[in-house]
Structure formats: C-alpha cells, structure tokens
Design goal:
The protein has 236 residues and is of the alpha+beta class. It has seven helices and 13 strands. α1 crosses α5.
Length: 236
Amino acid sequence: MYAIGSNTRGNRLAFLPPAIPGVGTSGGVTFILEDRAGKDVNFLAQNTKTFIQEALKRPEIRTINTRLTPDVPQIFADVNRDKVLKQGMDLSQVYQTIQAFMGGYFVNYFNRFGRQWQVYVEAEGKFRTDPDNINAFYVRNNQGQPIPLSSVVQIRPHEGPEFTMRYNLFRSAQLNVTGKPGYSSDQVSAALEEVFAKTMPREMGFDYLGMSYQEQQARKGVSPAVISHSRCSLCF
C-alpha cells in the first residue's frame, strides 16, 4: 500500500498500487468528470462536490479523492493597459518587469566550464514575499522617464484553482475511487455511472482514465467481424 504524508496542516492518504504497473498510479477506479458546456471552474467544482457527496452514500464505494481545488489563495496582478499607453510605456516591458519581480525572467544561455548555463533576472526572495514591493520597480516610458509599476498595476488577493485538468479537450476533474471489500471495480464503475445519471446536469459528461479506461475497452469485447476476418486469413 502506498501512502502520501504531510505535516499537521495537511492530509494523509493511503491507496492500493495498480494491478498493472505503468498503466496508472493507484488501484481502484479513475473516473473523470467533464464540463462539456465550457463553463467556469466553479460550475465544475460544484458539480464535482455534489457528485462525491452522493457517490459516498453508495455501499460499493469506500473513498473518493480529487485534486480539483477551486479556492487556492493567489495573487492577481491587474495591469491598467489604458494608463500604460497614456504614459508612453511599452506594455511588453511592463509584463516582463512584473515577471521578474513575482517569478523570474529568462535572458539567455551562455557556455562556460564545458557546460551550458541559463541566465534569469529575478527579485530576491525576501522582496518577492510582499506584493506591495512592486512600488520599488520602474519601467521607462518613451521619453526615458522612470514610471513606478504601482501606478499602472494593482495587486489584489484572488482565489482560483492551482491548475485545471483537460481531458478530451474538456475542463475535467479526476476522481480516484476505491471500493469497499467484496466489490469489484466493475461494480464500483456501475455505481458511479448510476450516481452520475441521477445527479449531474446534461452539460456534464464522464469518462475513464488509465487502467479503468482499459477495463472499459476490454468489457466491450472483440468484434465478431474481427474474429471472422482473422479466421479467413488463416484459410488456405
């Protein structure tokens, strides 16, 4: 059994290894909820929450875990483009300076000591921890005058997903589902599909991933036409 540990502020999860190494990262059923209407993240997150709550009521299902977290604390840099243009500033230089302050800006490569090195420009870590330090950065306008970034950029706290998964081009949520002892993965899959049919709106869809996808394909069997064609190819 694999385990994921963390500090006292996190969670600890345990899951079974996959039956076929290399096909997936854990056992059980990997179920994908898809937003097929192209709506926002909150729409997917709310339906995912509803689905999990209802699915956990089924006797076949033991646990459900998902990496979809729609409310991760973030910092949003809102650039006032009208002000940038009115003050004669280059918009690309504004974004590059923000990138150097909040992350890192790639400059070039150079070779030395038989190795290739990358050059980045970035603010010291102690300055990047406080978004208000953006007022210490300047961009020159077309007249050579330094303009503080704080005059054209507003920093505000924001919540959103750390990342969004796309499957079949749809924004999706991956659910790792484990069944209770005595239930097969086929029974767990059937239970999930029944919950989906009862609780999800028509804008939502579902699919399988990894080993669960292979199981679904194997369940369809081999087409009789393929078998007949194979037998005829052996006839002389």
